[in-house]
Amino acid sequence: MYDLSCADVTKSFGNFTAVRNVSLDIPSGSFFSILGPSGCGKTTLMRMIAGFETPTSGDIRIKGDSVLTLPPNKRNVKMVFQHLALFPMMTVGENIAYGLRCRGESKSDIGPKVARVLDRVGLPGSEDKQIDQLSGGQKQRIAIARCMVLEPDVLLLDEPLGALDLKLREHMKIELKQLQHQFETTFLYITHDQSEALVMSDNVAVMNAGRFEQIGSPKALYDDPSSGFVAGFVGDSNVLSGTLTEVRGDEAQVMLDGGGLILGRVCDASKAGDKVEVFLRPESLRLGAGAEGTMMAGKVESLLFNGASSRVLIRVDDQLIEVADPEQSSSLVKGADAQVRWSADRARIFARRSA
Amino acid sequence: MSRDASRLSLILLFAPFVLWIGLLIILPQVGIGYTSLREKISWNEYSFGLKNYVDFLGEPVYRNTLLRTAWMSILVTALALVMGFPIAYYIAKIARERSRAALFLMCLIPLWVSDLVRAYGWIVLLRETGVISTALVKWGIINQPIEMLYNDMTVIIGLVYTVILFMIVPLVSTLQGMDDALLEAGYNLGGSRLTVLRRIIIPYAMPGIVSGCIITFMLTAGSYLTPILLGGKNSSWFTEQIYNQFITRYNWESGSAFGVALLVFTSFVVWAGLRLTGQSLATTVAKD
Amino acid sequence: MKPSLRALLAGTAMALIAGTASAETLRLLTWGSYAPDEVVKLFEEEYPDIDVEVTFSNNEEMIAKLRATGGTGFDLAQPSHDRIYAAQLEYNIYKPMDLSKINMDALTPNLVEGVKANTTIDGEVYSVPHQWGTSGIMANMKEAPDAKGWGDLCSEQYQGRTSMRLRRTILLGTAFGMGMDPFALYADPAAYQDMLDKVTEKLIDCKSVIKTYWTGGDDLSALMLSGEVVVSETWDSTAFKLYGENPDIVFVPPETGALAWIDTFTIPRGGEADDAAYKWINFVLRPEITKMMSASTGAIAAVPNGIDLMPEDKRAAISAAFDQSDIDNLKFFANIPPGIEDMEGLALERIKAAN
Ligand SMILES: Nc1ncnc2c1ncn2[C@@H]1O[C@H](COP(=O)(O)OP(=O)(O)O)[C@@H](O)[C@H]1O
Ligand SMILES: [Mg+2]
Q1: Helices then strands, each counted (H, E), chain C
Q2: ipTM metric
Q3: CA C191 to CA C189: how far, in whole Å?
Q4: A139 touching B (Cβ < 8 Å)
């Protein structure tokens, strides 16, 4: 059984369709992310799950039961809001106890439960703190604790790290994942940041303009994107546009717009003569001469040192190609001639995305 | 701009404010406090003492009128709050941007006309031979004209109508600052409408409620024309007694003592109200 | 900054100069309707260099205003004859009159003498009469044909349909109605207090009968014309006006005598336009002006043929109200000794506060 399922959910505001035929099934205890650019309808989908919007069509089921007729306060899905929405006029303890009191639990039960959940999020004894005394990361944890104390079927998180600074965001990514393990609760996580989605999730749905492009594990999305949008949005890629000239089995030939022929693998239904884009991951590229695969020649434009994710920028005609160079081992210097090469099956070819 | 010039402009900017506070608020209060301590011995002969206050406390008519004025002002304040809150909530949270201004203007209507005209408006409507009573008789809803004027209820209605704006404005401005996500969080965590109202909206709006209540209470307790014109034979109002002391009895000393008593007592009521509801000015009105 | 500052100063100076350079101003402090527009207009036509500025008020406020300013701010006031002596002794707000500047022949001699008797201090005369009138009751003859005295205001046969103004006049009238003579008791505060106590008791009992206390002429007119009230305390001038609209409403001089007042001309101590003030006095005493004035005020001018100078309808109202015996029976307000008004004030407040 799935903790949360959506079947063909559509939401229109007037003529505008914000969410279109979305279906998803989230297994119990997993961390599921929805990844998509801002404005693609993520929040709208989440608000439908929480009950603040009613789907125009389709069904939403929690633990197998349709919740469409349940008001928000009767659904056992809890939500961590984009700006957290902690109640500023209540203390930390009162914030957490709020849901328990709404549920009518007795005072003697509430105290220990609040203490326990604070303990689990690593802030024991902070019941009497005021909300504005907390740091960003602490607020985050309180917002999660406030939901988790109610033991929800699903926890919804709407870009909860968006407001944090970079360092803290990196840290919270890991912490969130650990919290999810600890609580063993199903998380539905929304973000426009692909690295958050990839790091934390068991499964990710990539969303674009109201619909899901692909659902899969982070690795599957990364290694085997099903569309140009996914290939471009998940992970870094060099994108070269051109025209498909010939398809031979797995291998295909593309005439680049800037001139030059390269080899790759067609990943969708593109046929010879179609306008296409070729996606090359920086780490699939090699520098220097070699026998196999396909090759482009250019000049070193600059060297970007960033430890394990250092890059080399190669200018080929008027296009910059990013090549991973984890050890900064190649003894390249700026302005030197360089060759970029890859095996044809690592260059994915998709129909060109409309601009 | 040179230093001197900028200092000059600073002084020029602050001068009106300081003058206003000094000349119109502090100075008269000091004068009234001083006058209230003068005891009249005979013509043009005065000494200092608390006689005026002793007289005030010794005469039940004055004490009772002051208490009555305070009670009715509290009632008016409570009604203004109960009626103003939904209006303010509607304006701040539900109405669209464009209708918001129109709604605000509608709340301002009572202030477009003077106290006097407003009171006469009520009189025309509510008197025994007035518009409402006549219409009700004509439609057969009642068979005898009824007098709706000259009683405490009318005074209260008239005052609520006059002061409700001063309740609505601070409420709207605090409620506008409230993120809708707080309400949604309130529901999401299992709160019913009532819980969200009681535990989230009202506590959040508390600064607005407190300042709105203080303003309406003070305005009501200090109002003059509305209670006089709409009130009946039993509707005493404390400001009327201050007027009587000053104007018909030529007794400025005692009138001043009454003025001080009104100020002190209303301030006390405000203080007591804050204490009873567990609020303080620092955490509500003065909160950023 | 500097030039604009200078411009500002220059502007202010101009405004100040302009303020002082205008024509002489006569600042009149008087009763509503005692300075009708047409009279002011005619006066300003005759004396083009005098501007008339009118402030409407009543006895108490006139004295309070002059007391507050030490007798400045106005050039001519019109308090009633009984409000001058004590106010002058106590607050020194008026200055003596130069009777030689007034056309004394135009005035009724016995009224002049009466006012002189009331307003002479240290041999100096402070006031001359302008108009006189009475206070009594007014009745709607259709509904209350038998009303004849102050006592009728409290008569149960008019339950809920009588009215009065809660001011000193009703105290005095009620005292007369109860067979006492308040003016005779003025000199003896203890006896006066005793009388006030009786009157207070009577008027408190009376509260169950009356509909409401009226507060001004408009208020009273509306109550009478609508028929909501059938017997009321009134100024005769108000009754005369209403007679024009409904001849059933007549002034009834109480059987114990109508209370008569004389509104005077009195010059405030700080008056700055004495000449203009005397010009105004002589101007409004002219027969043709008197006519306009009486039409506006409804009060009778203190000139020998004062009643004949009333407009037609008011004359009819007067003859419907007064016969010679009523005129002989008039009770002129006597000078109020200091302290009396304070006692009366307390009595009035007790009445208002009683239930
Ligand atoms: N209540 C609404 N009325 C009309 N349009 C809306 C409403 N809510 C959201 N939208 C539109 O739906 C689209 C998706 O919004 P949203 O779900 O907030 O996107 P995301 O969270 O992915 O950034 C946006 O274009 C937004 O303008
Ligand atoms: Mg969003």
Answers
A1: 15, 14
A2: 0.83
A3: 5
A4: no
The DSSP secondary-structure symbol of A344 reads G
pLDDT at C10 (0 to 100): 45
Encoded tokens for B92: 């701040």
- C218 near C33, Cβ under 8 Å? no
Q: Is A42 in the pocket of ligand 1 (CB under 6 A)?
A: yes
For A293-350, write each residue's pLDDT tens digit.
788 888 888 888 887 788 889 888 888 889 888 776 666 788 888 888 888 888 999 9
Beta bridge partners of A246: A253
Please tell me what DSSP assigns to residue B201. Answer: I
Q: Which amino acid is at C9?
A: L
Q: How many angstroms separate the CA atoms of A60 and A67, rounded? A: 6
Whether A233 maps to a domain, the answer reads no
Question: Ligand 1: distance of its center to the CA of A39 in Å?
Answer: 6
Which tens digits make up the pLDDT trace of A142-176?
Answer: 999 999 999 999 999 999 888 788 888 888 888 88
* Residues of A (28-67) whose Cβ lies below 8 Å from B: 50-52
Report yes or no: B206 at the A interface, CB cutoff 8 Å: yes
Q: Do domains C3-132+261-322 and C135-259+330-353 have the same CATH topology?
A: yes
CA angle A144/A79/A146 to nearest 5° reads 35
* DSSP conformation class of B145: -
CATH of domain C3-132+261-322: 3.40.190.10
SS3 content of chain A, % helix, strand, coil (to 5): 30, 35, 35
- In the prediction, which pLDDT does A292 show? 67
Tell me the two tokens of residue A135.
């740091």
**Is the same domain home to A213 and A105?**
yes
Beta bridge partners of residue A66, listed in sequence order? A61
Number of Cβ within a 10 Å radius of residue B104: 15
Quick one: which of B129, B128, B116, B126 has its CA closest to B157? B126
Per-residue model confidence as pLDDT tens digits over A65-80: 999 999 999 999 999 9
Beta bridge partners of A266: A349
> What's the structural domain count of chain A?
2
**Is B33 at the interface with chain A, CB within 8 A?**
no
CA distance C321 to B40: 44
Q: Tell me the residue range of the domain where A137 lies.
A: 4-228
pTM: 0.82
> Which residues have a Cβ under 8 Å from the Cβ of A159 and sit 6 or more positions away?
A82, A190, A191, A192
Pick the CATH number of B46-287 from 1.20.272.10, 1.10.3720.10, 3.20.20.80, 3.90.180.10: 1.10.3720.10
Q: What is the DSSP secondary structure assignment for residue A91, as one 8-state letter? A: B
Beta-carbon count within 10 A of A8 CB: 12
pLDDT at site A33: 95
The string of pLDDT tens digits covering residues B176-234 is 999 999 999 999 999 999 999 999 999 999 999 999 999 999 999 999 989 988 888 88
Helices (H), chain A: 42-50, 92-102, 107-120, 136-148, 166-183, 194-200, 218-223, 228-233
Distance (Å, whole) CA C245 – CA C316: 13
Q: How many Å apart are CA A339 and CA B254, to the nearest integer?
A: 103
CATH code for the structural domain at C135-259+330-353: 3.40.190.10
CB count within 10 Å of CB C325 equals 8
Partner B, chain A 68-97, Cβ-Cβ below 8 Å:
71-74, 77-79, 81-83, 85-90
State residue A141 phi and psi, 5-degree precision: -70, -35
Segments in chain B forming alpha helices (H): 3-19, 27-36, 51-58, 60-89, 97-112, 115-126, 131-138, 152-176, 180-188, 193-195, 202-221, 225-230, 238-243, 252-276
In ligand 1, the atom with minimum distance to the C-alpha of A40 is: 22
Q: How far away is chain B from the Cα of A84, in angstroms, using its nearest Cα?
A: 8
List helix spans (H) across B177-251.
180-188, 193-195, 202-221, 225-230, 238-243
